Predict the structure.
Amino acid sequence: MTRIVLLPAKFIFRLVLAFAAGGAGVLAFAPFYLWPFALMSLFFLFALWHRAATSWRAFAIGFSWGLGLFIFGVPWIYVSLHVYGGMPVILAAIATFLFCCYLSIFPALGCAMHCWLVRRFGISAVASLLLVMPACFVIWEYVRGWFFSGFPWLVFGYSQTPGGPLFSPLMGFASVLGVFGISWLLAMTAGLWVLLTRGATGIVWSRRGRIVFGAAILAVWAIGGVLHRFPWSAPSGAPLKVALLQGNIEQSLKWREDQRATSLANYRELVETTSARLIVLPETALPFALSDLPADYLAALKRRSEANGGDAIVGVAIVERGVSLTDPYSVTNSAITLGQAPTQRYDKQHLVVFGEFIPPLLSWVYNWLQIPLGSMTAGRSDQKPLQIAGHAIAVNICYEDAFGAEIARQLPDAELLVNMSNMAWFGQYLASDQQAQFSQMRALESGRWMLRSTNTGVTAAINEKGKIVKALPQFARGVLEIEVQPRLGTTPYVFWKDWLILGLLLLALVGGCILKRADRHLVRVPEKK
C-alpha cells in the first residue's frame, strides 16, 4: 500500500506566508515605488528560511516565496503569449505559470544552498543571517540574470531606485556596486532585522549587541546617502535638445501590410514637429526591413535632421545575406542614424529568448507563437558609441538595459545612454514601468542621462541620479522634448562592473563558514531549543 505523507499544518502555513511575502514584494517596484516592502518581503523570507529544518523545506520556502513574487510581478507574460503571440488561452496560462515556477527555482536553490552550508559547517546565527544567507540569495539572483540568456526581472536592488514619496539611501551604492550590490545590502539589512527579532531566532541580545549591529547598519545606509550625492561624472559641453518619439501603434496592427504606410506617416509627422538636434525613434519603429523602405522616406528623415543641425536614431530591422550556405541570411534588430554625421549602425547584442531567437531543439515553439522576426542574429559585443549630434551616444535596444555590465562596455566613452523599446507586446500591467526601472538603475550606475524612446511607454528622460525628469503618458502618441546634459567620467561600477560584488559575495560565504562563533560576545543568553 502506498503511504501518503502529509505536510504539517504549521509548515503549510509557512509556505502560504512565504507566498504572500513574495507577492507583497512587487509593491516595492515600479510603478508603486514602495521600497520598504522589499525589506519586509525579505524579512519574512529570511525568518521562515532560518527556521527550515532541512534543505528540502528551505527549498520549498524559497520556491513558495518566488512563486508569489513572479505570479504577481510578471503576469504580463500571458499577454505576450496569448494576445500577441497567438497561443491558446489555456496553453498561455499554463506556460506563464510554468515560467513563474522556473523563476522560483532560483530563490529556492539559494535557500537550500544556505541550509546545507549551515549544517555542513556549523555556522552561527550571526554569520548565517548577516553573511551566508544574504550572499546565497543574491548569488542566485545573479544566476537568474545570466542563465539561459538571463531574466533579471524583479532583482531586489531595482526596488531602491528613486520614485514616489520615499527615498532610499541604498541607491547611492549603484555607482559603486551596481544593482546586485544594492540587493546584497538590502538582504543584509533584512538579515539583521531577523537576527534582532527574538521570535524569529530565539536569541536574546545584549544591549551591546543591539548597539553594535544597529550602528553598523545605520552607517551603511548613511554612506549610501553620501555616495548618492557624490558627483561621479561631470558635464561635457553644453546641454543638448533631444526629442523622444512615442508613436503608440497597437502591436496587433504594427506588422500588418495594410497598416505599414500609416505607421510610416505617423513617425514622419512626429519627426517634422520637432527642432531637436537629437531625435530618437523607438525599437523597430519602421515596420519594414531597411532594404524594403521607400527610398524617399529615409531621405526625408535625413533632411529634417540636417535642418535641425543634428541627427536621428531610427529603429529598424536589417536583413542581409549570410556568409555560408547554412546561414543564407541574417536579421538584426538595429538602430541606424540619419543626419549631419555619417550614417552609423548599432545591432542589438542581447536577444530575448523565444522572442528574438529560439534555442536549439525548441523550434517546435513556433507552432504556438506568431512572432514576427523571431529568428534574429545578435550584434557584436565590441560595438562603439555612435558619434552623432556632436556627442558619443551609447544605444541599447529594449531588454538590453536589464544588463548593467553589458551597458558599461560602451563606457566611459559615451556621454549619453539611449534605450529604444517596444513594450506594446506586454499590455498595460506593470511591464513598461518595471523596465523603465532598469533604465533608472543604468543611469545611477553610469552617472549618465538615459533617454528612452518607446512605442507605447515609458518614454522618458532620466538624469544621472536615476530620477525620471520628464515622461510622456503611456499609450498616447507624442513627442517628449527636453534639454539634457551630456556627461563624462568613470564611476567605480563602470570600471569593475559586477566583478567587485561577485568577489564580496564569495568573501561573505567563506567568511560565514569560518566565523562559526561570531556571536559569543554579543548574546546575553543562549539560543532556546
